[in-house]
Amino acid sequence: MDSCEIVVVGAGYAGLTAARHLIAAGKEVIVLEARDRVGGRVYTQQISEDFYVDLGGQWIGPTQDKIYALCQELGIDTFGTYNQGKNIISLRKKVKTYRGLIPKIDLPSLLNIDFTLKKLEKLAKQVDLETPWLADQAEKWDSQTLATFLDREVKFSNARAVIDAGMETVYATSSAEISLLNALFYIHSGGSLNALLSIDQGAQQDRIQGGAQLPAERLADQFRDRIRFNAPVRQIAQDESGVLIQYDGGQIRAKKIIVAIPPTLTAKIDYRPSLPPTRVQLTQRMPMGTVIKCYAIYDRPWWRELGYSGQIVADPNLPFQTTFDNSPADGSKGVLMAFCLANRARPLLNLSMEERGKIILAGLVHCFGPAAAKVEQYLDHSWAAEEWSGGCYVGLRSPGAWVGYGNALAEPCGHIHWAGTETATVWNGYIEGAIRSGEDAALAILSHE
Q: What's the pTM?
């Protein structure tokens, strides 16, 4: 039987960050990763020697100081997301163009959108990031969904279509599936709703040269001999002296363990003794979002020549909510990325990639014209089909989960500590949140010795 001081479960950004800090403090650490790679929900697929696509998390933006610092430390450059030219909106099967963040639709709808988004911003500021469940109106907000709020505030169908496309792109779930309190917490955690929705000065401002998985790879290179791949954890048994971990390939005895995987996956581990009921119940109320990230790859970004940004906002008549120009920094290939999310993704989950490609490309042709059909390659990634994620981007709390269970997600359970972007208070759901959660978990162990 192997032994060490601390085991870290999961080699995503949270687990790698925790391991790094513990190793720097002189601790003997072993990382167990179920996949054959690092990065977790960040996954860069190399198409050729000098061309890649990010199938998972990819963007970083202002105030995400930890990931920018990590890139700088590791000698990795960033570059701005392409954001020039006309955007497209598709409503009721009609295509129009606009510039800026908010589509130019009928004036009543525009005013309604502005009012609704500003009200969400105002309410979000009333949610304390450390204790969301203690907000003055926490019970009221947590007893309803985001959809309930939108049903009440949004008066026009065009306004609702635009807001739904934006909200589903932010949360990767329908507004009917997320607690209003969780939605407000998420907005405050990311700074503002404007930041979550925007490219310039927003969460989609920059991309990582070489792919978003590259910093994780270089971080892992510092202690790769301590990482065991294809090693999903099956059981964690605790006693007074520590933990005994059973995983595919062996068992390890350790003093402490940090479990840095999505909450829904933590529930698949056999704990002996059982975890506290509050933790068990909470993980049942944190489903993952539904995402198919779709890529149409061309020989060049031809839409730029026509004055388009590559961005689309679409109502449910199209299979995707939004698109972005995901071309390389040098424009050597043209890449349109479409987010197929929530209720629009579900009918496509059981189709083949080829079948999905026909549907997605038809939507792009509807917006851009016949040129959009002339792809060199179509590929996509369904995160709901990922055994070791169960969905993306993040586990979100259903109504009642914040008020009913408070901080049960992040509270240690004996020798077991928790990390992962879901436990972060700042930039929850993002790479930045994952890094911060890993630091917090490592610090919690080191500070209680």
A: 0.97
